[in-house]
Design goal:
The chain is built from 15 helices and nine strands. By secondary structure, the chain is mainly alpha-helical. The longest helix has 42 residues. It comes from Rhinopithecus roxellana (Golden snub-nosed monkey).
Length: 449
Amino acid sequence: MHTLWFREHNRVATELSALNPHWDGDTVYQEARKIVGAELQHITYSHWLPKVLGDPGTRMLRDYRGYNPNVNAGIINSFATAAFRFGHILINPILYRLNDTLGEISKGHLPFNKALFSPSRIIKEGGIDPVLRGLFGVAAKWRAPSYLLSLELTQRLFSEAYSAAVDSAATIIQRGRDHGIPPYVDFRVFCNLTSVKNFEDLQNEIKDSEIRQKLRKFWYENPGVFTPAQLTQLKQASLGRVLCDNGDSIQQVQADVFVKAEYPQDYLSCSEIPKVDLRVWQDCCADCRSRGQFRAVTQESQKKRSAQYNYPDEKDMELSHLRSRQQDKIYVGEDARNVTVLEKTKFSQDFSTFAAEIQETITALREQINKLEARLRQAGCTDVKGVPRKAEERWMKEDCTHCVCESGQVTCVVEICAPAPCASPELVKGMCCPVCRDRGMPTDSPEKR
């Protein structure tokens, strides 16, 4: 997954650079970083967490409604060290490695302990795709009961041992998160400092108002982080699409890779999986395509560098580039009217190309919608035992497990029993929850609870 998301960042950065050749490297990097961060947030909260929390937990989580200063976002130690370890019990003892038809690769599957600290297996035994397919193509294991620091520390730590230095401050912060230590505001009270209720209460400690503002908006759905069109595209993101775009050669995935699906009937071609259209991040200017060196950047990225932080020779270089471009404009022609005609012609050509690209996108989206609608119209689905089920059909898988066939997917919910209102409840065949019997009630009657 680490490799997959590195590739996704580079894929987005490459496409953004092609769409905006006038962007400098820092702008491309920061925008790609922001997009990938939003994709991760969207996938985690919209696709993964509902599977973990179930319907009741998802309803408690609710949709994002903006920053709420009354919500404690800290991690309590009991959660970090206990509850969140639930993921360990879902790890398969076997690391499944599957080919493009979801069969076992020639090198076979691996016992989990043989897979740890063995990166050479990825290089020599098929790349990342077999492992990724094993993650989305095989169900999870069934749950059984059972200061301001010196630059030496932040930029050069371990630099002699590793090709990239370690940031000690970042490591300390992450360790604090791992152990769920009390949040900063609680430590202020513990240390007899003033309590804080909002970010403005921190203006003596965090004097830069821009930094305080940044702390308010890390979330991708906050106003001003992305345009409405960009936000609409980001909500097309799915882990399936990331797998298609960044795997070695993955051609098929299920519509929701967090749900086990039957192959091949419940798998989709990657061409059918919606994708984030990065053209809505393209700057609109008449001659950006022909004058790739011109640095037109967003307002936020313009703030990143002020003149006092530029290297002296870098400012000279920029002036040199500007003079060069001025000369280019002067020598286009002696008659200024010719220049105007040239610019209008170029704009017309660029707009025609842009319009054609938009039409292609609309056509492709229409095809995707048609395919998805056709798929949803297909009646029924198949349960884990291979039994065909009709659309909207409901059945009992076990005494306490209710299943339903919806939109081609089987969803099962386990009933949770309330505490019995008697000292000695009994289990009755055909019923999920223990019942309390009346004294005169026959032993085989399930009517009273």
